[in-house]
Specification:
The protein is of the alpha/beta class. The protein has six helices and 13 strands. The model has no long low-confidence stretch (mean pLDDT 97).
Amino acid sequence: MRSILEHTLSPAEAAIWWLGQAGYIIRSLDLTVVIDPYLSDSAANGAQEFSRLYPAPIQPEDLMADIYIITHDHLDHLDPGTLSEYQYKQDTWFVAPSQAAKKLIPLGIPESRIVIISVGESKTIEGLEINGIFTLPTGPDVLDTTGYHIRFANGRNIYHTSDTQFHPLLVAAAPQKPEVMMVPVNGKWGNPGPEQAAELSYALQPKFVMPNHYDMMALNAENPEVFKWFCARKNMQEQCIIPERMQPFIWS
């Protein structure tokens, strides 16, 4: 985590570090944002088929952020193993949709540090504009699932779709031409597969698009090169970035 916090960026730049699954750290203008970090093995409790395939790249107690965003209440997104061990609960702003936010208080998150941003809502925290974006939830247990489009004061912006089914309404509601888009490609439990994810990406025309949700669990895996192939079929091969875990992707 120290190497991330000490990574030098120009005032016009932003950087993303992929944590695996759908988790990211984003930095710009000395502001650190994390989205859906899954740094434990919570999903394997009682379901060993969802065990991690590799160790967490950062220990939960070492994670540090100004703003911590949670898209929905599934264990690999709202991770009790990460949140319970997180050391900066009094100093970090926690953003989540309404129902997911209720799960944070039993994990030791002060209610005064929780900001609810659901679909269609927008708020600015520490100079970061955060917009709740429509998703088509993947199950009745997560009906408040929210994607997030965030914009730093220098204009750098990203769109995290969260887990979502593919649908024309999603295309209509999503931000057009985000700078960086993160989209699931696992094609299971309601998420789009590589072809649908490429179709969604083509419709939104991001400057860059990163696949996620394909690497953590054997039962929920997919080959990201398939997504890249479908992107290439739509002349988006230069836009498709398959990230390496914990290696910064920098843009301006």
